[in-house]
UniProtKB/TrEMBL annotation:
SUPFAM superfamilies: P-loop containing nucleoside triphosphate hydrolases. GO terms for molecular function: ATP binding. The keyword Glycosyltransferase does not apply. Belongs to the ABC transporter superfamily. Keywords: ATP-binding, Nucleotide-binding, Transport. PROSITE patterns: ABC_TRANSPORTER_1, ABC_TRANSPORTER_2. PANTHER family: TEICHOIC ACIDS EXPORT ATP-BINDING PROTEIN TAGH (PTHR46743:SF2). This is Polysaccharide ABC transporter ATP-binding protein. SMART domains: AAA. It comes from Bifidobacterium favimelis. Residues 1-20 are annotated as: Disordered.
């Protein structure tokens, strides 16, 4: 990992400026690889290719103008389908690759965990591999000494640390590699598709660890995963990459829903011009949440809104509605995956009303998803379309009786001494 951005322009610069809580800044980063198209077997052929303007390779653009920031204490998710560029992005962040354009700035000690067991030597003992891996991650022997007992305790391999790694079972190797990564005393932990490691008991231990990390304001985790439940469970914020570009950044639930939608395969051909609004698809080309009430209302009002959709079946289908708190973050209310079962196919509008007497002042967003039954689980549904961006509905509560800090009004919720 480069420690001096002046040596390699556009790469990482590390420092510690506690006046700014941004620990990772990715600024207009682009990355391409050169793929050979024609090989020159000699100087004559190379000269001929040069005179004809044949470069012998083509550029594969993997990432294009990627920008985002991660704050100290954040649990930040990066998702995308295979080939979207997310693993390349992690390798850029970790200093394994360097960008062709833009810059990456990291504050603090970054511990990358890109692939399980990378840097381990099967001919060395477990103990020796811990020190080897720690050295590769940039830790001194004294720093590894301080971490060693925690690593061994978490991996539950105290009786095996002086055996050669080649004698370990695959599960034991996974536990040791994972424990080295998460117990290393770094400021930023970078994980790529490694949450489902080990047996069930070890996964529960990892879950407890990550829930504790979420509460530690000094630790930052960057997670790449295909598991949207992990995104919803652990992450504070997330972004979705598609074809090397950021599609959505910020709200983890919107990212998870869009990722699910992108993975929903249909045999039908694309619609008009093959283009749909963000969150929509050929099977549901229209889904919009529309404010009927004014978009600035008081707590005494009911907020009325419509959901307009087009869906031609033949499955059962539902509208699920979530209320997002824009200022404070998180989902204030959710109807659940089977919120409202509808029966009318085609192009229709459904009317809704929601009381606001519970809320203090704030800004809110209504996000609607049209869902169909999950083939494997009768209690679950899959998102066929999500009304996000301009198809979502935003409104604000403003009332002189309200406070600004907490979500719930003291008229709705009061703690009394007894």
């Amino acid at each position: 990992m480069a420690n001096d951005s002046e040596k390699l322009p556009g790469t990482q610069a590390q420092g510690r400026d506690d006046r700014d809580d941004t620990v990772l800044k990715v600024d207009h980063v682009s990355k391409y690889f050169k793929l050979p198209t024609e090989q020159a077997t000699g100087l004559k052929q190379a000269f001929i290719n040069w005179t004809k303007g044949i470069k012998g390779y083509r550029k594969q653009q993997v990432l294009d103008d990627i920008s985002f920031e991660v704050k100290r204490g954040d649990f930040f998710g990066i998702v995308g389908r295979n080939g979207s560029g997310k693993s390349t992005l992690l390798k850029l962040i970790s200093g394994i690759y360097y960008p062709n354009g833009g810059s990456i700035q990291v504050k603090g000690k970054l511990v990358p965990f890109i692939e399980l067991g990378v840097g381990f030597n099967p001919e060395l003992t477990g103990r020796e591999n811990v020190y080897l891996n720690g050295s590769l991650l940039g830790f001194t022997r004294e720093e590894v000494d301080a971490m060693y007992d925690d690593i061994v305790e978490f991996a539950e391999l105290g009786d095996f640390m002086d055996q050669k790694l080649k004698n370990y079972s695959s599960g034991m190797q996974v536990r040791l590699a994972f424990s080295v990564a998460i117990k290393a005393q770094g400021d930023i932990l970078v994980l790529d598709e490694v949450l489902a490691v080990g047996d069930e008991a070890f996964q529960r231990k990892c879950n407890d660890y990550f829930m504790a990390v979420k509460k530690d304001p000094s630790k930052t985790v960057i997670l790449v995963t295909h598991d949207m439940e992990s995104i919803k469970k652990y992450c504070d914020h997330a972004l979705l990459i598609k074809d090397g570009k950021i599609v959505i950044s910020g709200d983890k639930d919107a990212v998870a829903e869009q990722y699910t939608l992108d993975n929903f395969h249909t045999d039908k051909k694309p619609g008009k011009d093959g283009v749909y609004e963000n969150g929509l698809s050929e099977r549901c080309p229209l889904l919009k949440t529309i404010a009927v009430s004014p978009q600035v209302v008081s707590s005494a009002d009911e907020f009325k809104f419509d959901v307009e959709y087009r869906f031609d079946g033949p499955e059962d289908f539902y509208l699920a509605i979530a209320l997002h708190d824009i200022r404070r973050g998180g989902i204030t209310y959710d109807t659940g995956m089977k919120g409202f079962k509808l029966t009318e196919y085609g192009h229709h509008t459904v009317h809704f009303s929601m009381p606001l007497n519970l809320f203090n002042d704030g800004e809110f967003r209504l996000v609607t998803s049209l869902r169909i039954p999950n083939a494997a689980d009768p209690n679950a549904t899959d998102a066929l379309a999500v009304a996000i961006d301009s198809n979502a509905c935003e409104f604000a509560v403003r009332d002189p009786r309200n406070s600004q800090y907490a979500l719930l009004s003291d008229r709705a919720m009061t703690i009394r001494q007894i």
